[in-house]
Design a protein that fits this description.
It contains seven helices and seven strands; from the N terminus they run ααββαβαβαβαββα. It is of the alpha/beta class.
Amino acid sequence: MFALLIFAWGVSQQVPKVLKTKFSKEALAQKVTDINGKTISISKILDQNKGKIVVIDLWASWCRDCLKAMPKAKELEDKNPNVKFIFLSLDRNEEAWKKGLEKHEMTQKENYWFHVGWKNDFNNYIDLNWIPRYLIVNQKSGIAKYYAISPEDPEIQKTIDELSK
């Protein structure tokens, strides 16, 4: 119990000091696993979506805040049919991730899983310290909105609207 309190006390959702506007080579090289068990780099995912506005949703099926945010995230997705939503899971294992996709009716969405765990080049680069976390990527694969922890953050829609002009 004491260790849990120390852990909880040490973890916080602080806005990073530097709001980055592009991804590092290491972050882009990070591999994730798709629903079919194939690995793909973040760079390849972004290349496949070049020319589109992309919202990256980092989540996990064990994350209470993530699950609580899902209805509002779905509203955001429904409101923006021309935006590509990509879901990156931080579930602890593949089985939990796939069960979470089924349970939360996400199997038809573009989903990937960090098979190497939370500590990886992508998450380290984006200063991931809390989930859910949302990033908006512009049509040229640059970071347009670096830090949001709620789909209700008005800056998300504002950024999408500005990029859509």
